[in-house]
Amino acid sequence: MHLFIRVKLLLLSALIFSGALTAQSDYSLGPVDAGEVEAELVADVAALRPGQEFQLALRLKMDPHWHVYWINPGDTGLVPEVEWELPEGFEVGPLEFPVPHRIPTPPLVSYGYEGEIFLLAKARAPESLPVGGTVRINAAANWLVCEEYCIQGDAKVALELPVTESGESLAAAKFADEIAETRASLPAEAQGGKVAYEDLGDTLVFSLQWDGLEGAELKDPYFYVEQESVSDSAKEQSFDLVGNLLRVAVPKAEYFEASDSGYTGLLYSKNGFEAAGGVQAVRFSEQGDLASMGVASVRSSAFEIGFGQALLYAFLGGMILNLMPCVFPVLSIKVLGFVQQSGEDKGKVFKHGLVFAAGVLASFWVLAGTLIALRSAGESLGWGFQLQQPEFVVVMLVVMFLFGLSLAGVFEMGTSAIGLQGKVKSEGFGGSFFSGVIATAVATPCTGPFMGQALGYALTLSAFQSLTVFTFLALGMATPYLALSANPALINKLPRPGAWMETFKQVMSFPMFATCIWLIWLLGTHVGNDGLIFVLGGLLVVAIGAWIYGRWSTPIRKKATKRVASVVALLTVASGIWLMLPKGHAEAKEELAWQAYSPALMEELSSSGKPVFVDFTADWCLTCKANEVRLFASDEVLDTIKERDVQLVQADWTKKDAVIAQELAKYGRSSVPLYLLFDGKPGSEPKVLPQVLSPDVFLESLDEI
Amino acid sequence: MIAKLRSFGAAAAALLFIASVSAANVGEPAPQFSLTDIDGKTHSLSDYAGKVVVLEWTNYGCPIVKKHYNSGNMQSLQDLAKGKDVVWLSICSSAPGTQGHMSAAEWKAAIAEKGVKSSAVLIDESGKVGHLYSAKVTPHMYVIDSKGTLVYDGAIDSIPSGKIADIEKADNYVIAALDAVLAGKPIETSKVKPYGCGIKYAR
């Protein structure tokens, strides 16, 4: 493969040229309409003087959505070529290409340009150029222009420039400003920068070292490798900037062709590089080697850090899970457990801690295993998928509701299967294990800001590594409990058991009921308003069952009474659950003016010129709901949306949706929330907004586009 | 920090995990498929067991395909294959309504006009077989040896351009692959990035 475009210089003999009086060839002056492309040969000067250096430019103006290609066209395409016919003594340099864009035509991604571009070439007139005449420069250009389909285009364009003493003329060059602008924003050489690479089989890891990177804030970075058949243009790259060293992991092209002389490329950052005068791309061409750059091999260190960091975040994320609203009630039950156990022998308490941890671990493994199995089965499911099944929600709701009733004192849990604390008391380790399982089951849909990242990461790993990440999540979640049970001193700091416990227990029933409200609301999206009547009615029946159990199945009753009461209670609860199970009720209706996400809609909107806000959300996602409430409660936000005609698109992931799952995966996520903001310009990449989205951040981001 | 984790995490993931997703790999058995031709007759790859097979992804509207048909290059390759008892299957994966998709009558007319000498022209509207082979562009060429092993995957020749004049200067990889396979020799170049127009798959 050629590293750079070959420039073909055809020098016409003086004989032919001096015959300017004879009929000119089929080269035409001015713009040439070549169908989808308008081509024109232009210069930054309107007249020449002998020896002058000037710039030629091939102006290509594409019809909307049509694109031509960069020197490395990416998955498909061909680079535009120009063959020059120059007057004698003239010199022209290679074509210089502006910063390319990524142009997706699923499943492929090309590197190229839409709209109007100027392909520049530096040129010089000879000193011996006679003043007073006119010179004519001819250029035969050919290109491949594509939209949905491709068209081979060509044009023979010409430019005539008068030759004057001073190089001045009355008229200004038509495109001088555009050429100057293009020149100013051409990729700049990263002065003193070096590039080295390591081949890791499926991935090339580039190490870009440049002082201009020190302290730089890269925005939507991308590394455009100049050589063809090196990088896979359809795959995402990843970046890690430490000091003046940027590491870029570039997936290899399927048709990878190794280069002995190394690789060169453009580093793009949307906000530009201050150290290079603000241009959006800097070029790394000087080959370095890792040792002399003082860079450790990715194989030895950086990767470990990457994976190590992931584990750390997973661990922290697991700990934070304990504070999530949907886990908190379970944690409070466990606090009761602590208090009860602290009277017992310390070693036994620690063993309970270990068994609890084992319960958490086991359930995370089961979840991870299921997820991995489903993933490999080709189902694009995301985290939290179990809450997308209404049956699961119903069961969770009944469990939570019964917890709440028990805590409130309607019935004593005693040895009942769902009585966690009772289980711990009477059945020992089995109960601790079970509470670990319950805690995990409740925690999984709560992907907080930490979890989203760690899970997105984990799901891209091998099965073994995913399991490791999940293990750390589990350990993080179990650690606070483990620490307490291992450290008797801490346990002693907890209040002594006493009458206050009953009060505390009753108070703890309220978070349980709050959780129930959330679950009921969630069910509402599945079953609709009318269906909710059945859910609430079912809960009433469950409550009656619990009351029957509490009233007649206590130790003071006769054995036969207890047995009858237990059976009746069980039947009542079961019929309550049966009432609640969805039976194809009507869907709840959206009252907001959101447009439902679809790839086709996105394609249309993302080049509509209007800002587009895409909200990847799900009804079971607390973070999403909190964000939405905060965001749309703000009048300023609502006004701005109206004023700027922001298009609102909602990708609802409450129920399984393979298309949305794929879109999430594109941004390295396997869970919601994900917020994207498009500026509405064709071909531009969306901005990914933070997972915890405040009105201020939203407005700021909107201002920037 | 978190963003860093995500991005570098992906790198680490890519580096350890990415298994080859394409089902068609050079050196491995070519994936089996069945498609109907423009006359409605079904062709299965297994029908041609024991024979060398060339697969040519095509779209007569694509300028790069036109380059090889208008110059007669593709037809002469097909002719050459025929002379050596090689089966040549042209496959069109253009979805209905996209460039390259044609009715049976239009296909017949185009084939007659171009003098196409394929053993069969197969229609893959759903793109199933195209995806099975990870066919990317038109023309995208594959060669399968008589044992059913995929031995070549990629470009038709060595100069990615739209100019007919380049055909003569280019090394034709399909001829090289056929020569090697028929002579029982190993293939020198077995995988080259194909050039052309993206296949108009059903979305």
How would you concisely characterize the structure shown here?
The complex is a heterodimer of chains A (705) and B (203). With 705 residues, chain A is α+β, with helices and mostly antiparallel strands. Chain A is built from 19 helices and 26 strands.
Question: What would you note in describing this structure?
Answer:
The complex is a heterodimer of chains A (705) and B (203). Chain A is of the alpha+beta class and 705 residues long. Chain A folds into 4 domains: 179 residues, Sandwich (Immunoglobulin-like); 107 residues, Immunoglobulin-like, CATH 2.60.40; 194 residues, no CATH class; 110 residues, Glutaredoxin. Chain A has 19 helices and 26 strands. In chain A, the strands form 6 sheets. Chain A has a 5-stranded mixed β-sheet with strand order 1-7-12-13-2, with no helix packed on it. A 5-stranded antiparallel β-sheet of chain A has the order 3-4-5-11-8. Chain A has a 5-stranded mixed β-sheet with strand order 22-24-23-25-26, sandwiched between helices. In chain A, helix 4 crosses helix 11 and helix 7 packs across helix 13. The longest helix of chain A is centred in the last third of the chain and has 53 residues. Chain A is elongated, with a radius of gyration of 34 Å. The N terminus of chain A is likely disordered. By secondary structure, chain B is an alpha/beta fold. Chain B has one domain: Glutaredoxin. Chain B is built from 7 helices and 10 strands. An 8-stranded mixed β-sheet of chain B has the order 2-1-5-4-3-7-8-9, covered by helices on one side. In chain B, strands 6-10 form a two-stranded antiparallel ribbon. Chain B is globular. The N and C termini of chain B lie far apart (37 Å). The interface between A and B is large, with 58 and 45 residues.
